[in-house]
Amino acid sequence: MKIDAVITWVDGDDPRHRAKREKYGNTKSLNRDDVAGSTRFSSLGEIFYCVASLNRYAPWLNKIYIVTDEQDPMVGDFIAKHFPEGHIPMEIVDHKVIFRGYEEHLPTFNSISIESMTWRIPGLAEHYIEFNDDLILAAPTRPEDFFPEEGKVVCYGKRYSSLYVTLSHLLRRHSDGSKQVSFRQTMRNAAELLGEHKNFIKIYHTPKALIRSTYERYFAQHPEHLSTNIKHRFREPSQYNVEELQYLLLNREGRVVMREAYDELLYLKPKRDSRYIAKKLEEFDRKATHKFGCFNSLDLMTDEGRELTTEWIERRINIVTK
């Protein structure tokens, strides 16, 4: 089975990208972390660790695609240095490529919109795994950790009440009364789209195993569902999580193998408290076989916390940068 990896990445500190955000955004949206706050676009080299971890712990991958907006993370020399005997082939894919035919929605600064289109990467394998750049593989993996057999996927998640999320979403609002964008709400929205009103599959910050043709068939039958999800340049409460959509569709066909996320996931919340970070990293050291790590918002940490975290990541994936 040929399996590719897709990583979505942006350098929000790039002056050209910042200028585009300011041109198309407004003061309200640009100051909200759930919509378009600067932390959503921050890049502190996470992509280097992400790609290195794939080479270290998933050398069986066929190809790595890095999806960007007129940018290049320049990760090639770094990977060649740390994997001199060879590495997984890489390709940079611009938003213009995956939004071909939908160029009126570009530029976009919306991770939900971008993830709705990554299945359109030319040459993408039928089976692929999607990563955000703040994810790493933290231990050796096998294809079966994602695709237990042809046509089936592993989903690291569990069933969750739609009612709870609906009530929570009604209470969580900005000071001006507008709705917040929440990860769980976008999952519930996908379930609602498919007529599943009682519960949904709560997915976590792990790599997502996906099947390209599932999106291709669904959006061929419901092109309006694609158009309405990608038209927003910034995150919007009405949008739905496309990975959730895929898992619900596959689950109806008995093609989803559900596994408990925290049996495999090391998750570091975006906190400034270095004591919390040190404690969590010590806990992670005791979980040597956990396969996934998510290190959310390094930019929000103190210098000490960020140094502790990056040193831990480098030990875990066995690279040295100093």
Describe the structure.
- The protein has one domain (3-138, 205-240, 256-317).
- It is 37% helix and 17% strand.
- The chain is an alpha/beta fold and 322 residues long.
- α8 packs across α11 (242-252) and α9 (212-221) crosses α10.
- Mean pLDDT is 90; it is low at 34-42.
Q: Tell me the strand order in the biggest sheet.
A: 3-2-1-4-8
Helix content: 25-40%
H and E string? EHHHEHEHHEEEHHEEHHHEEHEH
Total of DSSP H or I helical runs spanning 4+ residues: 13
Give the biggest beta sheet: 5 strands, mixed
Q: How would you state the average pLDDT, rounded?
A: 90
Distance between the termini: 37 Å
Shape: globular
Alpha-carbon Rg, integer: 19 Å
Structural category is alpha/beta
The count of DSSP E runs of length 2 or more, i.e. the number of strands, is 11
Q: Which descriptors apply to this entry?
A:
322 residues, alpha/beta, three-stranded mixed β-sheet, 17% strand
